[in-house]
Amino acid sequence: MPDCLVNGVRLHFEEHGQGQEGRAPILCIHGMSTSALVWGPSVAKVAALGRTIVYDRRGCTRSERPQPYATNITQQADDAAALLRALDAAPAVVIGRSYGGEVALALALRHPETVRALVLLEAGLVNLVPEAKAWAEGVMARTLAAAEGEPSDAAKALVHEILGEGAWEKLPPPLQSMFAANSAAVVAEMRGGFLEAEPEALSKLGIPLLLVASAESPPAFRHVVAAMGAAIPMARTALVPGGHMIDLAEPAVLEFVATVVREPNP
Question: Which ranges carry the AB hydrolase-1 domain (predicted)?
Answer without folding.
Answer: 25-153
